[in-house]
Structure to design on (128 residues):
């Protein structure tokens, strides 16, 4: 490369780790923005404490799912590092449930979008 000796393996790992970090940060930021809008919409003076606890639980689960997802896509030598840090966590169980929950939520989203579209068409037919 232009007369430079570049370690492609090293730089590709570093750049991919930075890109994954950016994706995790922006995804978490998007979740926080959505949750804050929802929090403002449903909050009252009496229910604010329980809502904060609920959203804390959601954020913890979201963070753990991002770690599991990131671990699933890493090379084997780096997976071992995350496994050592998190301890005896059954990653295969969480990988399977991650896939199941994705399929269920995608199916439900498709069904809800279909029903919303069908309702909109029926409303438009009734108006004309």
């Amino acid at each position: 490369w232009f007369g430079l000796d570049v370690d492609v393996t090293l730089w590709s790992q570093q750049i991919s780790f930075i890109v994954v970090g950016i994706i995790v940060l922006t995804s978490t930021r998007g979740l926080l923005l959505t949750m804050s809008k929802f929090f403002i919409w449903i909050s009252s003076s009496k229910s604010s404490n329980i809502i904060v606890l609920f959203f804390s639980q959601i954020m913890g689960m979201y963070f753990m799912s991002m770690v599991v997802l990131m671990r699933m896509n890493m090379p084997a030598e780096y997976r071992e590092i995350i496994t050592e840090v998190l301890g005896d966590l059954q990653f295969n169980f969480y990988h399977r449930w991650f896939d199941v929950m994705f399929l269920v939520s995608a199916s439900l989203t498709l069904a809800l979008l279909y029903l919303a579209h069908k309702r909109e068409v029926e409303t438009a037919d009734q108006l004309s």
About this structure: Helices lie at 8-42, 48-72, 76-86, 91-127. Residues 91-127 form the longest helix (37 residues). The mean pLDDT is 80.
